[in-house]
User: Fold these one by one.
Assistant:
Number 1:
Amino acid sequence: MTAALPTSSREWHLVARPQGWPTTEDFALREAEVTAPAEGKVLVRNLHFSVDPYMRGRMNDVKSYTPPFQLDRPMEGGAVGEVIASAAEGISVGDHVLHGLGWREYAEVDASVVVTVDPTIAPLSAYLGVLGMTGLTAYAGLLEVASFQPGDAVFVSGAAGAVGSQVGQIARLKGASRVIGSAGSDEKVRLLVEEYGFDAAFNYKNDPVADQLREAAPDGIDVYFDNVGGEHLEAAISSLKVRGRAAICGMIAQYNATKPTPGPRNLALVIGKRLRLQGMLVGDHAALQPQFVEEVGGWLASGELKYAETAVEGIENGVDAFLGLLRGENTGKMIVSLG
Ligand SMILES: NC(=O)c1ccc[n+]([C@@H]2O[C@H](COP(=O)([O-])OP(=O)(O)OC[C@H]3O[C@@H](n4cnc5c(N)ncnc54)[C@H](OP(=O)(O)O)[C@@H]3O)[C@@H](O)[C@H]2O)c1
């Protein structure tokens, strides 16, 4: 046990359920008391926490695959930090750990749910992104859910984000015949082609997605990795070849919708083309974790796979980081760093 513990910790609470786009008024940064960890727990000083699109869903009071955030309680999410006090066997002060109590400066975490991570292998923030949840989502979604095969032509939306940028690069490294990405700025499009080795990319804000996709993939696509939904999904259904597969990973274009959003108008194409559209949750693919870490870790070490992070400094900017993520202000993984 360490003697001098901090006495208080700032933490973000959800104080109102957003209607449509969240605003800063829906959140409050509050002080909480810090005490020595109870038996079986550790006290962690969070160094980075993750803000993720799925958190928008947890702000609604609806039954889903993750429970809603409770009002006037600290929000949760991935975080990495340093253990500063331990009442648990096998975890020592100074250890670095990954856990699920982000959105706060200090977290008292049950030792059974922390994962020890090694900052000498990769920067700690990487365990929230390229070597963490979003990385596994990309890996499992492409290889397991979409049944990627060498020679496939792959289209990924949200391609400059955490999941999307990794999907495109894994497809390239695994022998895709063509990798196409869409993103929301010309600068992101340039990054995809010039840095990440995509064969083609386009800015979905410039022209209809269907037209731009047809131009980028004149022979069609075998795999669509969907991070966006809406117009992107409809365009992909049109461009998918016979027996094409889509991993339906996210539909960020509708997370702030206040009314039910229409489905793809061309869904009937699924029949004749015998398409497979498969939803996914990363939590179902934990068994792939060792293979994922080994393979992606190797590509990172060799420099074959690149990644970006957009780090917002300071707990007080946590909500702005989340809102910025929804607006596309991030390139790669959006992280809040606590210094
Ligand atoms: N199923 C699962 O288990 C699982 C796990 C992790 C993530 N996901 C999903 O995967 C997707 C990507 O997540 P991520 O963590 O990697 O986030 P991200 O892509 O790093 O960040 C979100 C990006 O979405 C784009 N975006 C926002 N509104 C959009 C719109 N209306 N149309 C098109 N693009 C829009 C923005 O980029 P632009 O500048 O390009 O617009 C923004 O940067 C999300 O849909 C998320 O919910 C699912």
Number 2:
Amino acid sequence: MDKNKKTIYIITSIFIGMFALLILYLVYFTAVKQKQISVNPYNTRLNNLEKEVIRGDIYDTNMKLLATTVNGKRNYPKGSLYAHVVGYSERGKTGVEALANTELLYPDYNVVALFKNAFSGQKFQGRDIVLTLDDRYQTAIEKAMKGQKGAVIVIEPTTGKIKAMYGSPGFDPNRINEDWESLTADTKNSPLLNRVTNGLYPPGSIFKVITTLAYMNQEKGQSLDFKHDCTGKIIGDGYSIQCYNETAHGNIGLKEAFYKSCNTYFVKLSSKVSVKSLRDAAEKLGFNQPLHFDMDYAKSRFQLKETESPFEKAATYIGQGRTLTTPLHMAMIASCIANDGVMMKPYLLDYSMNKKGNLKVKYLPQYEKAMIDEEMTTDLQEMMIGVVKEGTATPLKRKNIIVGGKTGTAQNETSEDHSWFIGFAKYSVEDKNQIAFAVIVENSGNGVKAVDVTDKIVNVYQEIKP
Ligand SMILES: [Zn+2]
């Protein structure tokens, strides 16, 4: 009798234990893993849904059709224009096709649909997605890029809404199956790479924004009175660094050095700003850190150490050296500065709806954090406006609109320099309907190609504003 009791007791304990484990597993699965599982494009439940559900459509913010399903095949009416950001759904899923996969395949169950499905085997309809993207920006950017390699992103700083995301070269997502072999084989141009999120570039002179911030951080409250007499060139221990065209900028302070992008000034600023201060400023802004962003992206790198050669140090203070960043990240920094130091999470999905137009999920702006002191951003904004008023980006000057930014020329060992521009545009100091952007034109050589592209973005901004 006792032996039997003991057996029952053991068996019961085992069952209770297994049950507890099962519950824990389920809780873990639903609470912790749910998000990862639902967006995992290889999730078998979703793959099964694809047999039952017609994948929903994707629209820009003004209901321009960007992706639809025709006779079971995915169709992209805009061809390569949205290739990277909207992505593709065969050969794995990328871009919005991956990001919004669960919504696009969310079956619209209703009595009629259930009957049709049960009796005639008709598929359910998935939900449509409306993006934050605006085709007017995207189209103007493609035209301005004229087939040159590079990347452009436009963000609304107060909300984090991404208005445009364009990379070149692209590909035709309608032909992803036919062209797959040649697209993956083309390692020289990497047409499948989303350069906005995953293209890692040396920042060049746009990094002077971060060097300036590091200087502000270090001197908190003190006047930023460091001066340097620029002769157009600086010769250090085993290196020589020039200003653009070897222009001698004379005896200048921080503001003028920023407007004119004086290299020797910022190299000399290393006597004031320690490597640690520079790294702290960079890391506070997201270098070496994960970004708050839902799509796949590359992490920016800042690798300078105190022990490195004078050349490596000098180069890093002006954005050369081993520092690497993405257009996405630099646009986030520009956006944060424009938004008085507050970083909003950049996002692409605005809302989903069923075929009747009923709203299903609304995605809201998400506050990330206050990254820069408001006072510092006011000063930085002024300096960036100075770049357009009297510095290296005067073609962007407008009568009734405020444009600010920073130009950059990024040297790279293999070919011609890249041209960068990051900045913002707004109608008044207090304007909430502003935009921020990052533009890079690869291998464009000397000159301000990125400023030309930005000019077209600002034109659209002016046209759109009522
Ligand atoms: Zn200079």
